Amino acid sequence: MVRFSIILLFLATLLYACEECEPEETKCEGDKLYLCYSDGQWEKIDDCDDIWGPEEDSVWICDEDAFGEDEGGCVLLDGGTND
Amino acid sequence: MTRRLTPELVKKFHIHMCNKYDMKIMDKEDAWEMQLVGKALDMMKIQDKDDFLNRYATTIGNRIYLPYEVGSYDISLDNQIGTLCHELHHKRQADRDSFFEIKYLLDKDYRAHKEARALTVNLEMHWWYCGKLYNTDMLAESLRSYALEDRHIRVVKKHLKIHAAIVKQGGVENTISKQSIRWLNRRAPNVGVIRSR
């Protein structure tokens, strides 16, 4: 019984170690936006610097507080240019 | 000139994009392999067989199985464009991951993520044509028929909401959408509302 509990504890620790984030959290890494998915793993959801438009010279950046505190997103820089 | 899609344009678009990605369009209902897949999905409780055959497009390898005739008015023409782009996005996902099909079938988290990514293409293409956003919560809820659970749907809702904010500001991020919009704007410059590229 003790051995069984130790194995369970070990498995639980492993599972906890794999759970990297809280689902629905967001984070920026450079211009990449990540969303914590349902399995607790970070998934890249947007390349902000790859976004087209609305103008030829529009610049998009990743902002960790785009939609409020800790609510990340890609945001369009006002009047931004690529030069 | 009218600002409308025509069956001819939609057919040409399918031919162009399928050539570009070396894909073939197949009639889903007539394909024996789809009957088999439908049975398997039904047995695995992923999707009802009739729904699978009549309501959903499916991409396997270099074939896209559609439950309608391209250019017909069975479903709206802009939906046909969105559906093709969605399926081609899955093709790109499969090209980048050798185990795409098996992971998609067996791993619900993976399936949720890949479907959400592909749905962002639908958001972009619908905006290109109508200048309007789909209701992202409803789009996410539609994934319940892919045997996804509340925890998946919640994250997909957030994913789509974040992407919708980009689309609403006139941004396009997916490669398939960019290629499609570029082609469509060149062939029919008066049809879409995004015309800057």
Characterize the structure shown.
The complex is a heterodimer of chains A (83) and B (197). Chain A has 83 residues and is of the alpha+beta class. The radius of gyration of chain A is 19 Å and the shape is elongated. With 197 residues, chain B is mostly helical. Chain B has nine helices and three strands, in the order αβααββαααααα. Chain B has a three-stranded mixed β-sheet, covered by helices on one side. In chain B, a hairpin with a 2-residue loop joins β2 and β3. In chain B, α2 crosses α3 and α4 packs antiparallel against α9. The longest helix of chain B has 23 residues. At the A-B interface, β2, β3 and β5 of A face α6 and α8 of B.
- The helix content of chain B is 55-70%
**Given the structure, what is the number of helices of chain A?**
1
By helix and strand content of chain B, what is the structural category?
mainly alpha
CA-based gyration radius of chain A: 19 Å
Mean pLDDT of chain B, rounded to whole units?
93
Q: Give the ordered list of helices and strands of chain A.
A: HEEEEE
Give the total of beta strands of chain B. 3
- The structural class of chain A is alpha+beta
Q: Into which percent range does the helicity of residues of chain A fall?
A: 10-25%
Oligomeric form: heterodimer
Molecular shape of chain A = elongated
What is the C-alpha radius of gyration of chain B, as a whole number of Å?
16 Å
Span of the ends, CA to CA of chain A? 67 Å
The profile of the biggest β sheet of chain B is:
3 strands, mixed
Number of helices of chain B: 9
* Percent of residues in β-strands of chain B: 5-15%
Shape of chain B: globular
Q: What ranges of chain B have pLDDT less than 50 throughout 5 or more consecutive residues?
A: none
Largest sheet report of chain A: 3 strands, antiparallel
Contiguous uncertain segments of 5+ residues of chain A: none
